[in-house]
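Attaching the record inline, Q. Sequence:
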Amino acid sequence: MIGIINFLVIAILITTQCCKNAYAIEDPLSIPNNKFGVHILFTTELSDASRLFNSNGGDWGYVTIPIQAGDRDLEKWQRFMDDARELHVIPIIRLASENYYFDTKVWRKSHYDDILDFANFLNSLEWPVKNRYIVVFNEVNRSDEWEGNLNPAEYANILGYAVSAFKSLNDDFFIISAGLDNAAPNINGKYMNEYDYMLAMNDAVPGIFDLVDGLGSHSYPNPGFRQMPYILTSQSIYSFNFERNLAYRLSGKNLPVFITETGWSKEELAENQIAEYFKYAFKHVWSDNYIVAVTPFLLQGGQGHFSQFSLINENGEKSKIFLALAKIPKTKGNPTVNYNTDVSSNSISKKLPLKTFPKTLQYKNIPLEKNNIISDFFKWLLRLSI
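Structure, as predicted:
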């Protein structure tokens, strides 16, 4: 019995110490940072991406890439992380579900189980740098991104839960709110203006923007993906500033900004004009000190709807936009790199670790349910002693 008591004391001390060590992320704005990046769709695009933003003095730029709930291929994603380390690329992983089964134009909304699965899987990977950047879903102020149902309260709770779930596994996870559609009007049941959506999130979960580590933004040149870069409105490439100011008013926290999508449409403007717009934007608008990364959408758009934003043309040639972005002077980033790993993408044989944690985690000011971690542990231990 004395041994059991000693074991309990040690367990409680470990639990307490773990709580004290939370939120050990690195401030990306306190070190040399190359904010240039690009949004990609496939892990195989990493090499071309690095040539874009690790150019003209740049090093350790960013890529934003989505990971779908059904794409938890350990070998594939570890190879991606290994390549990112070798190519000096900082990944920003955006969580995504999949098209809704009964309506392929609508994305299935995500649940707490999805967060748990993502957290366990992404924690099993060896990341290239200390900060593990996670964007929690996409343009949730559009109903088609949330199973046809606008629900800012539901998203706010899932976002807060994601903070607890990821950070309970590793303190280095850096949680970023979803980039919102900055052109969305208020149309009942279909769209919600992004600023009204942020207010509704905070009404449902007071202090939600105090919980996250970064603010996601889709600062497109709206309306129409064609506005000039010196038009500084709440719907333009300057929308990140309106979003950040609102988040500060709601939380009192100056959140670093991650512009994970932006860009002009080639269906509206010539490549030469877009190239000049990008140069102006990076020099005069996205030079804001609170911006960590700008990853224009999209490196390669193929032949579909996304081709209008593609920086690499359908024939594989780099567009005038790509070439202009590559020539912009950049900073040599200096993140903390994770070199202490023996993981090789060519020799992975480990299985996904069976890491579990309660779904009833409690986060600041937002109790989902009572946190019973300690009581459950005592019950389990007592059963062993009988």
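The two ends are 11 Å apart (CA to CA). The mean pLDDT is 86.

More tomorrow.
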